[in-house]
Design a protein that fits this description.
Catalyzes the conversion of 3-dehydroshikimate to protocatechuate (3,4-dihydroxybenzoate), a common intermediate of quinate and shikimate degradation pathways. By secondary structure, this protein is α/β, with parallel strands linked by helices. Helix 3 (about 45-50) crosses helix 4 (about 70-90) and helix 19 (about 545-555) packs antiparallel against helix 20. About 50% of the residues are buried. The structure holds 3,4-dihydroxybenzoic acid and magnesium ion.
Length: about 625
């Protein structure tokens, strides 16, 4: 499969774009004239620069307002086209995109458009060029790929074909299966884009909110299945107009784009196995069976605060690494590693970010398969030198320069706790915390799509609808991603303002990182009591929260009193119930949460978030921390 991306999709000057597109592994690109008008090089030199990067110019675009014009305007449009053909020859581009006209004087008429395009195709063919006709969703007379195809069909010229663009078809809710009746060899080019479902003017939506396939809400997989069913074997090209991407990291956005195309074709193949998809076989989305461990990087000065917090939640120091300054704190199936090594990855993470989560271990069926899928989807492998008796545990890079390790039973990686660690024999309390409920990662708002794509493309984890959380000092967006059984959950919180709690954390931790860890309790009241007995200090929730709760849920006084006693927040989802309370943040701003889900509750207590944030901010102000 040949992959391509439009230069408008990413930030930077032309040279930065080319470097990023090539590094991400694309075969070619669509070039927008504006992109090289700003460059000092001539079109011929630009063409050479592109080829020097190992890239092919797959499409020159767009040529606007061509078809259906009256008299002198028509003649001028042909002149304009000839001028562009000259330019294409210089660039080394042989396919031009003509988008359906929005010209106020365009006359309309299927046959008139077909005649104009056929005549231009003749001129193009003489120069060895081809034309593709695309229906813009807001085209004046042609705004539907079915009409564009009818025009191409009637024009009946071998140098004229159809260009499909998933955004234009899907934004108008045109059934993608109508593509299945178009012959694949008459489709000259396919552009792909997704978009979040928002009710808005089509042109504005298209020019500002497109995103990578899989990042939005449009049925791009169904669209692509229909395209594949036609036998189309040309390039798959991303054409993403997105304000955020234009200001983002060229290499990051290009990598996301490449990842999105591989994931898209993987989904097409799985949804419709009879389709010929030119993509090497890769393992299916990886089922995650839970969090095997969470590793903190810290130093001997930072460890005691963390270890005290763990002990107060009922964790005990279970075992010590045989070679390294790493201890395992355990309760039930929850393992939290405290790494105070003075060399290696954890130490460099600590130097960059302070005490924080540097590594997350996920339990999977087959670690080798996991890495195979992750690398096929452009993830970066991670490894570091091993000491004696240490096991090779596969890993990739994750959020904020942290690491994801994969542990399985199949290849015996779960023996690591016995092989690399020595038990302390410390007594084993049980405060009822039995597994990791979710990890909350905080990041800049502009990183959210990228990490959502990362988790949902590699793992069998799906995103839930995005929520807005009102921090008194700005909005925080929250995107939950969860395995189908809800057993593994990650929330991504995107901060737009540094005045928000999330934004302050981001600044303090020097980048994206785990901001809180939620642990599941079998009985939250019992856990709260046991923890209080061990010296745990909860985040105090003000009385007005409980007055509000009484009004909202009609809970009886005894229940309200119990919730208030332990600073537990409450939320319902139909009949399902959710209970949660928080610890006070550690020095770096990270905190723990204890939750109990009853009756299949699937959320995260969004209605309580403003209270939690306000309480945290009050606490930080009281401590006179600079963030407050
Ligand atoms: O927004 C536009 O004008 C525009 C131009 C060319 C395209 O291929 C397209 O999909 C949109
Ligand atoms: Mg397009």
């Amino acid at each position: 499969m040949k992959t391509s991306i439009a230069t408008v999709s990413i930030a930077g000057n032309l040279r930065e774009k080319l470097a990023a597109i090539a590094a991400a592994g694309f075969d070619g690109l669509e070039i927008f004239e504006q992109d090289f008008l700003q460059d000092a090089a001539s079109p011929r030199e630009v063409g050479q620069m592109i080829r020097d990067h190992g890239l092919q110019v797959m499409l020159f675009q767009p040529f606007r307002d061509f078809e259906g014009l009256p008299g002198p305007l028509r003649a001028r449009a042909f002149d304009r086209a000839r001028h562009k053909f000259d330019l294409m020859a210089e660039l080394g581009a042989d396919l031009m995109l003509i988008c359906s006209s929005v010209h106020p004087q365009a006359l309309g008429g299927i046959d008139r458009a077909a005649d104009d395009l056929a005549e231009l195709a003749g001129i193009a063919a003489d120069r060895g060029l081809r034309l593709g006709y695309e229906a813009l969703a807001w085209g004046r007379h042609v705004n539907d790929h079915r009409d564009a195809w009818e025009i191409v069909r009637r024009a009946d010229h071998p140098a004229l074909g159809l260009i499909l663009d998933s955004f234009h078809s899907l934004s108008r809710r045109i059934d993608p299966d109508t593509i299945r009746r178009i012959p694949g060899d008459r489709i000259f080019f396919v552009q792909l884009a997704d978009a979040p479902q928002i009710d808005m003017d089509l042109l504005y939506w298209s020019r500002h909110f497109r995103n990578m396939p899989g990042e939005g809400d449009l049925p791009v997989v169904d669209f692509m299945r229909a395209v594949a069913a036609t036998g189309y074997a040309g390039p798959l090209s991303l054409e993403i107009f997105n304000d955020q991407f234009r200001g983002g990291s060229p290499t990051g956005i290009a990598r996301d784009g490449h990842r999105s195309l591989i994931w898209l074709m993987d989904q097409v193949r799985r949804a419709e196995p009879s389709l010929a998809v030119d993509l090497p076989a890769i393992p299916a989305n990886i089922a995650v069976r839970g969090v095997e461990f969470i590793e903190f990087a810290t130093d001997p000065a930072g460890a005691p605060e963390l270890e005290t917090a763990l002990a107060r939640m009922g964790f005990h120091r279970d075992s010590l690494h045989r070679n390294k300054a790493v201890s395992v704190w355990r309760q039930g199936a929850v393992r939290i590693l405290v790494n105070t090594e003075q060399t290696g990855f954890a130490h460099s993470f600590f130097l960059n970010h302070g005490t924080g989560v540097c590594d997350i271990g996920l339990r999977v069926e087959d670690a080798a398969n996991t890495v195979a899928r992750a690398t096929a989807l452009d993830a970066t492998l991670f490894s570091q030198p091993l000491g004696p008796q240490e096991m090779t545990i596969p890993a990739i890079r994750g959020v904020g320069g942290s690491i994801l390790h994969f542990i399985d039973e199949k290849s015996g990686l779960d023996a690591v706790w016995k092989v690399e660690f020595q038990p302390t024999g410390a007594p084993e309390p049980d405060f009822g915390l039995f597994r990791v409920d979710h990890l909350a990662e905080t990041m800049g708002y502009d990183e959210m799509l990228s990490w959502t794509l990362f988790y949902s493309a590699i793992f069998d984890m799906q995103r839930r609808p995005m929520l807005d959380v009102a921090d008194p000092d700005g909005l925080v967006r929250s995107q939950a991603i969860a395995s189908p059984d809800g057993g593994t959950r990650i929330t991504l919180n995107g901060a737009q303002s540094h005045r928000t709690l999330a934004g302050g954390f981001l600044a303090d931790s020097m980048g994206s990182a785990v901001q809180h860890i939620a642990l599941a309790s079998r009985d939250i009241f019992a856990s709260a009591e046991a923890m209080a007995g061990a010296g745990f200090e909860p985040l105090e929730i003000p009385d007005n929260y409980y007055d509000d709760l009484r009004a909202r849920h009609g809970l009886d006084e005894a229940t309200i009193a119990r919730l208030r006693r332990w600073n537990i927040l409450y939320e319902t989802e139909g009949e399902a119930e959710f209970f949660q309370f928080y610890g006070r943040p550690l020095a770096g701003g990270l905190f723990f949460e204890i939750v109990e889900r009853r009756g299949g509750y699937d959320g995260y207590g969004a209605s309580n978030a403003p209270f939690r944030i306000a309480a945290l901010k009050r606490l930080l102000r009281a401590k006179d921390m600079p963030r407050a």
